[in-house]
Amino acid sequence: MELATPRTKLSRTQFWAFLAVTFALLLGSLRWNIFRIDPAQVTENILLADCYVVPAMEFYAEGPALQRDFGEIKLLGGDGKYSPYYMQVGLQRIVFSGLSPRSSQGVDRAIPLMETLVAGASALTFTAFLAVVEMEFGLLCASLTLLLLAFSNWLVIFAPDLFWVSATFSCPSSWRGSWATRRAPGISAVCSPHASPLSA
Amino acid sequence: MLAACFTLVCLIKCLCGFDYTTNIFAAVAVPFIYYGLRRGVTLRAIAARVLGYGALSVVAFLAAIALQIMQFSFVQRDTNNSLSSFLTEVRRRTLSNGEGISSRYDDAVLNLLHRLHVSTVHDPGIERWLVPMRPLLRYFRYLSMGAVTVRLPFRPLQLPIGLFVAGFLVAFFIWRQRSKRKMTACTDRGAALMWSSLAALAISHFWIVAANGHMTHTFFNAIVFYIPFLPMAYVALSFGIASALRRVSASRVLATRSA
Known about the structure:
The complex is a heterodimer of chains A (200) and B (259). With 200 residues, chain A is mainly alpha-helical. Chain A is 58% helix and 8% strand. In chain A, strands 1-2 form a two-stranded antiparallel ribbon. In chain A, a hairpin with a 5-residue loop joins strand 1 (68-76) and strand 2 (82-87). Chain A is elongated. Chain B is built from eleven helices and two strands; from the N terminus they run H-H-H-H-H-H-H-E-E-H-H-H-H. The N and C termini of chain B lie far apart (59 Å). The interface between A and B is large, with 76 and 84 residues.
């Protein structure tokens, strides 16, 4: 069954305009939740970031650079003693510490900006993905996918979180996929209905 | 150069946390499968590229682990204790069945059975079977969580993750039945999309299996279904809708011309 149907190609200007709109819409949804997606769930999960993972001065907490101490959360051992909850992460802490001013008030001011930066990176990653979708499947398909992504509960929850840096989740595959599209024009020339079947 | 950039991105991800790395690294297979099928590349060649990039992601993962160990050795100077606790933590998070601090899934099943008039006398015997069932119960909990919410005027409409998973599997099965065609070296974009989405669905389950203990955090782990299945499912759904609309439009044009 042939699922593909003919479609009209966008001009270069139209294509870049589509990408700009896509980025703006995704940034609005992922950073500010403009579509008010499941606010109860978002609040519940943001609680984790606000209360435990990213208290303001945790950026400058003492300790090994590639670890984060959860601070208020402690691990209860079998002997009944509590120990610090260290996590083997920390590159984001190094970067955020480098970007934010070195005072408690300065960090407080910097956090919303860095959340925008992180959500922007996620929006950019999905924009690259949607650029590929537009080139392969057309504007209508890419627009519908854009809406579904913008309405996605868990993307809205994760995107602005400074702990997760969710842009890194889809960056390797999106980036590699976007690069692969650069060689896409030859596709139709290679395809023929008489191609030899491979092992299914 | 491209491979080096990919490895660097994977290393950056690992240094920001090891969560979901199985899915994130394996997700690179999806564009390889899609474009491989579209370009008429053989399955063997596609598999070779996927394995090659898989090896690079393992290199990035090991490099991140090595940096952690170097930190233990040279910064903390606490090699023995820290390394053993590090490995204990890795084992606990990956191999345990989770729910070590909660029995709410057991309680939910027992409550249901009590409502069905099963006597509480049998609880100890039933609980013994419920412990290995926890991952399965958690999995169904994840499927019931919302993937997409559309805010309608009267109430929000939430589409659960399970709807996309089941919907895609049904669509794939129907498509396979109708196409009656083997996976070929050169397919149309719809077919390539279906195969790569199926791969994405399988990849989304990697973390669920590999880090079963970590899946106990039901309040945030539903994100695994977005790495990379749900975006691909969205494309497949949108492509289906767009194709149907184009066909309706084309048939109307033909009907108008013939009239």
